[in-house]
Amino acid sequence: MGPVCVLQGVRRPFRIGDRRVAALDGVDLVVQEGAQVVVTGPSGAGKSTLLHVLGLVDADFEGTYRFMGQDVRQTTEAERGRWRLGRIGFAFQDLHLVPTLTAMENLLIPLLAAGTSRAAADDRARDLLLQAGLGDRMDHLPTELSGGERRRVAFARALVNKPRLLLLDEPTAELDEVSVQGVRALLERASAEGAAVVAVTHDARLVVDFAERYQMTSGRLERLDMATPPSPYG
Length: 234
Description:
Layout: E1 3-16, E2 19-32, E3 36-40, H1 47-54, E4 62-67, E5 70-71, H2 77-86, E6 88-91, H3 103-113, H4 118-131, H5 147-159, E7 165-169, H6 177-192, E8 196-200, H7 204-207, E9 212-217, E10 220-223
Parallel strand pairs: 3-8, 3-9, 6-7, 7-8
Antiparallel strand pairs: 1-2, 1-4, 4-5, 9-10
Helix pairs in contact: 3-4, 3-5, 5-6
């Protein structure tokens, strides 16, 4: 298995007034195929910025990022858009569910956009919603779902196109234990399908599920020894 993502000396500067601040400050990271990586750290440490760079949402970085062996800075926005649709799955805190579509229909959108047949798309979406424990909620609008159910719909949607990279931003935030179990089931599904997973979280219930653990502080990323407990701030 080879690396899905390789970051070398990545910086993401922002200008605040007269100051230039680095949300990412010399980040090195290798994410292998099938890896499960979790990043903890205090708010404002750069965790969400890291996900945006990894997910090709933010291309205004310095340094080197290779995705599936290709130098991201040598690609066009159209190429990155195709990768975001077919190779990267996102489940961010802002769920971005379409409010006028049912849970099932929200999953169908990226499948059909990627050229999947309607029959195959229906099967894939239904299978994921069942695994997420939402078999009786498929035809409900987001406004008819609980917060935990909406988050599981968003997570299932991130998996529909069998991404090579799955990015999760606080996937279990404010979830009860039933919803956390649904998230865990989807994580197991992602792993079984060979996706590399990178999650940022404050939830100790989820951290224990990940083999590779990192701490982010002030834009810098540090690998934690398995015996090192995560910071109480993240």
